[in-house]
């Protein structure tokens, strides 16, 4: 790895030294020097903070180093994106162009990852038959659980566990399951919502902060997709089942050495929401 300071451009501002948390850049005899390249985690902060483009880094693509366009940074626009984004569960029967999906994922790669690991990968499923098969399998598991829960042994067990918060949270689904089954028979997909695209955000199995990294990327995906006229929805049940469901993992081509941190569907919304939603005030403790 070669990290070099271009002396004819450098003005000795020391911003690279200030910014480098790894200790690669240090002040030596009054000038900044890359004295410990082996500690570099490729965060590219030194390149980004240098006002004179005086740093060359062999492991970073200099072609991606663009000027920050501060005039485009608008707080109200970002707030509008965040406030008006909805979880979409009704989609138009239209495919999403591959270029649009690639545009969303290209943005997602700029999401922060712990220690700049950049270890995320994405599985994009656009085969409607596979998406439907995955939805059917997950829904069938839910129906099976419902049948057991409403049986005599199931009622007895759940009665003993009624104070368990996780069990209690599932009751609202169970209470309406007859309706869900009826609607499913009529063609409604309650799991993947007949969406044309399913995206799985993956990280190495057992990696530190893997799920955190996946969710940060997932948030950027859903917000940016919203600006492109696309709708998305997190599918928590699928994420949970992909932790151990070997057949489901095989169907969706999840490698053995990867874990799925986020599952979400994407497509063009069947209709638009005219108003922002109501939300609780934040619970804040000031210290």
How would you briefly describe this protein structure?
This protein is α+β, with helices and mostly antiparallel strands. It has helices spanning 15-19, 45-49, 75-84, 98-108, 128-149, 152-160, 165-175, 177-185, 210-227, 236-241, 246-251; strands at residues 3-5, 25-28, 31-34, 55-57, 121-125, 197-204, 231-234, 258-267. It is 39% helix and 14% strand.
Give the second-level CATH assignment, the architecture of the largest domain. 3-Layer(aba) Sandwich
Percent of residues in beta strands: 5-15%
Q: How much helix is in the residues?
A: 25-40%
- What is the count of helical runs? 11
- Regarding quaternary structure, what we see is single chain
CATH topology group of the largest domain:
NADH Oxidase
Average predicted confidence as pLDDT: 93
Quickly count the domains: 3
- Please give the order of strands in the largest beta sheet: 5-6-8-7
Structural class: alpha+beta
Order of helices and strands: EHEEHEHHEHHHHEHEHHE
3D shape: elongated
Could you tell me the radius of gyration in angstroms? Answer: 24 Å
**Main sheet: strands, sense, barrel:** 4 strands, antiparallel
**Low-pLDDT residue intervals, each spanning 5 or more residues:** none
CATH C-level category of the largest domain: Alpha Beta
Extended strand count: 8
Distance between the termini: 44 Å
CATH homologous superfamily designation of the largest domain:
NADH Oxidase
